[in-house]
């Protein structure tokens, strides 16, 4: 999977950036265009536009026609990250100040709003490459559904942080909305560009409802060890997030340990110490919560890969590689 991603990035990376430049020049309004590109320059794997290209390519589509949508996927990803950092209070992203920390919250909100509208502008530009209006409308519907589901999932996530009796069902419902549609949008769009029908698209979404949660569970695990490659470790604990590990541990530990666990999770972020984070980690280890989360993610990936049977050979290979990548990645 990584080799394929790197190949497409090498071949098409500049084209993706050029598509974004068509709607967001580097220089224009201070604290807007420069800030958007500041955020883009914090790095990232550019996985989403690559997935759109790979999906289109594997279904024998015209890759040039998918480029605006591929760039739109990257832009949407970055818009959501800008707002996510504000919501979570994250001050660092890949060793750089987050947009809101550098430019202020007011500018951060506005920058995200600006980027969100440019997503639709990019998709509309695909008509210049011969994409018909019906297909453009389907792509916009895909973006709208993804945006709505992601916002619903994010709200459930924030609501869950006030819940001292979280269930695994509530956690799964939250992360399905927060990650599944969001992750699969590039692949769905790639299939739409080549004219695949809604039945085919629904099968991709079903796959996503397995892979999305596996991605989020892996993200939760990485936060404990590597800070997801973008920030300090233990941010989920500081933010009071009810991860699968919290749900699992809280249903198995003693009453005293449970009380201590939620006391730490419910602390204001700035008051959560390194000792607090270590105490939560030790509880997770004691009750096998980390291993439970890892097994759950691997099980979901196994179920997702089963759903790729009877899909076109090259396309199915991409989905299986993507599924494996979701649980094997290191950041």
Break the fold down into its secondary structure elements and pairings.
Elements: H1 2-23, H2 33-40, H3 47-58, H4 63-88, E1 92-93, E2 96-97, H5 99-103, H6 105-125, H7 133-160, H8 168-193, H9 198-225, H10 235-238, H11 244-250, H12 255-265, H13 274-286, H14 289-306, H15 313-328
Antiparallel strand pairs: 1-2
Helix pairs in contact: 1-3, 1-4, 3-4, 3-8, 3-15, 4-6, 4-8, 7-8, 8-9, 9-14, 9-15, 11-14, 14-15
Attribute tags:
331 residues, mainly alpha, Farnesyl Diphosphate Synthase, 2 domains, two-stranded antiparallel ribbon, 15 helices, 1% strand
Give an overview of the whole structure.
The chain is mainly α. The protein has 15 helices and 2 strands. Strands 1-2 form a two-stranded antiparallel ribbon. α8 (168-193) packs across α9. The mean pLDDT is 92.
Please provide the ordered H/E string of secondary-structure elements.
HHHHEEHHHHHHHHHHH
Which segments are poorly predicted (pLDDT under 50) over 5 or more consecutive residues? none
Number of domains: 2
Distance between the first and last residues' Cα: 15 Å
Counted beta strands: 2
Helix content: over 70%
CATH class of the largest domain: Mainly Alpha
């Amino acid at each position: 999977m990584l080799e394929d991603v790197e190949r497409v990035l090498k071949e098409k990376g500049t084209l993706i950036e050029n598509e974004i430049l068509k709607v967001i020049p580097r220089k224009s309004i201070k604290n807007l265009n420069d800030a958007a590109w500041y955020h883009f320059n914090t790095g990232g794997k550019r996985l989403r536009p690559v997935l759109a290209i790979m999906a289109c390519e594997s279904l024998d589509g015209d890759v040039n026609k998918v480029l605006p949508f591929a760039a739109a996927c990257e832009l949407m990803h970055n818009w959501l990250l800008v707002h996510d950092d504000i919501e979570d209070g994250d001050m660092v992203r890949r060793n750089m100040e987050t947009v809101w920390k550098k430019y202020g919250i007011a500018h951060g909100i506005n920058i995200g709003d600006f980027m969100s509208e440019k997503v639709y502008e990019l998709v509309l530009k695909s008509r210049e490459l011969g994409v018909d209006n019906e297909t453009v409308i389907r792509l916009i519907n895909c973006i709208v559904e993804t945006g709505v589901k992601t916002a619903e999932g994010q709200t459930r996530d924030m609501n869950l942080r006030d819940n001292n009796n979280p269930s695994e069902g509530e956690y799964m419902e939250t992360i399905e909305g927060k990650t599944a549609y969001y992750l699969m949008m590039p692949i769905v769009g790639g299939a739409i560009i080549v004219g695949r029908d809604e039945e085919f698209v629904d099968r991709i979404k079903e796959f996503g409802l397995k892979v999305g949660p596996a991605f989020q569970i892996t993200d939760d695990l990485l936060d404990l060890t590597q800070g997801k490659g973008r920030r300090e470790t233990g941010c989920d604990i500081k933010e009071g997030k009810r991860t699968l590990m919290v749900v699992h541990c809280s249903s198995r530990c003693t009453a005293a340990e449970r009380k201590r666990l939620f006391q730490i999770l419910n602390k204001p972020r700035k008051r959560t110490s390194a000792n607090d984070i270590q105490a939560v980690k030790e509880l997770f280890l004691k009750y096998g919560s980390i291993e439970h989360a890892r097994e759950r993610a691997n099980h979901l990936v196994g179920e997702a890969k089963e759903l790729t049977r009877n899909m076109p050979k090259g396309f199915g290979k991409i989905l299986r590689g993507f599924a494996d990548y979701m649980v094997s990645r290191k950041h």
